[in-house]
Amino acid sequence: MKIILMIGPQGSGKGTQSELLAFKLGLPHITVGTLFRTEIAKGSELGTKMKDYMDRGEIVPSDITDRVITERLSRKDAANGMILDGYPRTLEQADKLDNIMSTLGRTITDVVYLNITHAEAHHRLAGRRVCQNVACEQNYHLEMNPPTKKAGFCDKCGSVIAQRSDDTPDAIERRLHIYEVDTVPLIELYKGQGYLREMDAMKPIGDVQQHILTAIGA
Ligand code: AP5
Fold first, then answer.
1. pLDDT tens digits for 73-104?
2. What does residue 57 show for φ and ψ, rounded to 5 degrees?
3. Which of 37, 72, 128, 129 is catalytic?
4. Is 67 a catalytic residue?
């Protein structure tokens, strides 16, 4: 059973690579950001609270995040493995994940670390466009990965694509700073535990995917 965590700075391609991996391995792609955006789309009070944090580029507090992730990981479709994208992001969340995994009788198999430069992260996020259908959320980039069927519309589902509300220069900078402070310590943690698979994620999307598949033995 494969339980694969994806870590790396914002814009490193966690969502893009997770989606490809999920398809290839037949596993669910679980991303906390999407779980939050689904709640926001419902217009609930909880969703409004999440949106405030996300638009500022801040981490959503653990009382909310823990509840959402515990519920999602307990669902039936995650029983045979998963690709977990964007969780954990802090040492506290790594502890929480260990507890959830041990309750469910599972263990992490691989931690894929996508390494890119700060400048590349800015460039990718500034040009990113995302399908506005929250059930699709296909990623595009204005220059490097534009839609091929009709400009401004998703190739997969035909919905409009647009910039994410947290892809503003200020929010990008704040997210990258929080990544440096809170998430980078996880790299050493998982290296020490023998799970880390470091990738040069500056390479084209297909090359990175190929390297990941080799590194995780798939
Ligand atoms: P989330 O939605 O997870 O966003 P993120 O972490 O900011 O990561 P990104 O989606 O920005 O980057 P990515 O690495 O997935 O890159 P992508 O594949 O899109 O989280 C959003 C918010 O939710 C957080 O800020 C926080 O508020 C909250 N949240 C989430 N998880 C949380 C947690 N655990 N705890 C608390 N709060 C949490 O690619 C980016 C662009 O680059 C795309 O345009 C893509 O086409 C392009 N691209 C990708 N790979 C390549 C390549 N190799 N070459 C060229 N272009 C590429």
1. 999 999 999 999 999 999 999 999 999 999 99
2. 80, 20
3. 128
4. no
- DSSP E strand stretches across the chain: 2-7, 29-31, 81-85, 110-115, 128-131, 139-141, 161-162, 196-200
Q: How many CA atoms lie within 13 A of 178 on its CB side?
A: 17
Distance 11 CA to ligand 1 centre (A): 5
What pTM was estimated for this model as a whole? 0.93
* Residue of 56, 144, 211 best suited for mutating to test ligand 1, as the one with most atoms within 8 Å of CB: 144
Amino acid at residue number 199: M
Which of these is catalytic: 72, 96, 124, 175?
A: 175
- For strand 128-131 and strand 161-162, is the pairing parallel, antiparallel, or unpaired? antiparallel
Q: Could you identify the residue written with the tokens 């991303």?
A: 31
Give the tens place of pLDDT for each residue, 137-187: 899 999 989 999 999 999 999 999 999 988 999 989 999 999 999 999 999
Q: Which amino acid makes up residue 121?
A: A
